[in-house]
User: Which sequence fits this backbone?
């Protein structure tokens, strides 16, 4: 049999479709939100946050500071104890987390995965969607179990973007991704015409994408304009505490 050249993971370019109409603000906000899992351990009070389709926000904070809780409040997966979440009626959020990668059905191939989730399209459409994330040729028809960690993440990206969301919430999206794929992800997020909120410990991704930092600490979220460089010290201090540096 003819040996096919190994497709390097680094030859990847990602694309986030943005064929949606512009939404006029307000797009997404939390007003005076209080939240706790148990009344004797308040997590947040007086939380005021807002995001729009221009947002490129990175949430940082120590483990246990409530980063994922903030994401879930924004996505309406958790209900505030008091205060209000407001969202534009046409807001469509795409959510990525390691949990989604771990939940992929390992026994089917990537094409079947999309077919089950979004029935009624042609095989060509599913392949085209996967191809936008570097899952091409026989990679698309191999059992998901046989794919590398990075490839599984890319299948999860393909699945997340298929309904064309106008806003992405990404929780630690760079686990298992090589450097080239992280750069491709940053490029795709920068080109994307919708909003982006991410939780990440990846200095490269934050530096390339982030225009605003939300720092989670002691029951509040502090909003800071600007990117990684202005707040390098805050971030590096935080990453050190958590053992990422």
Assistant:
């Amino acid at each position: 049999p003819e040996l096919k050249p190994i497709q390097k993971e680094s030859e990847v370019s990602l694309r986030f479709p943005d064929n949606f109409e512009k939404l006029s603000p307000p797009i997404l906000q939390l007003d005076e939100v209080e939240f706790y899992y148990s009344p004797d351990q308040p997590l947040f009070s007086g939380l005021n946050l807002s995001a729009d389709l221009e947002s490129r926000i990175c949430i940082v904070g120590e483990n246990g500071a409530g980063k994922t809780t903030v994401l879930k409040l924004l996505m309406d997966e958790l209900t505030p104890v008091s205060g209000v979440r407001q969202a534009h009626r046409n807001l469509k959020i795409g959510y990525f987390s390691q949990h989604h990668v771990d939940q992929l059905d390992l026994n089917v191939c990537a094409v079947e995965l999309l077919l089950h989730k979004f029935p009624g399209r042609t095989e060509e459409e599913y392949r085209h969607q996967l191809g936008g994330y570097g899952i091409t040729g026989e990679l698309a028809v191999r059992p998901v179990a046989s794919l590398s960690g990075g490839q599984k993440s890319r299948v999860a990206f393909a699945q997340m973007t298929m309904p064309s969301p106008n806003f992405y919430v990404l929780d630690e999206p760079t686990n298992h991704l090589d450097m080239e794929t992280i750069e491709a992800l940053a490029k795709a997020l920068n080109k994307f015409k919708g909003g982006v909120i991410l939780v990440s410990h990846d200095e490269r991704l934050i530096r390339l994408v982030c225009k605003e930092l939300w720092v989670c600490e002691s029951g509040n979220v502090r909003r800071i304009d600007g990117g990684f460089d202005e707040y390098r010290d805050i971030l590096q201090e935080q990453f050190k505490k958590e053992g990422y540096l």
In short: The mean pLDDT is 89. Helices lie at 67-74, 98-102, 110-117, 123-131, 149-161, 179-191, 203-209, 232-241. The domain at 27-92+166-245 is CATH 3.40.50.300 (Rossmann fold). The chain is about 30% helix and 25% strand.
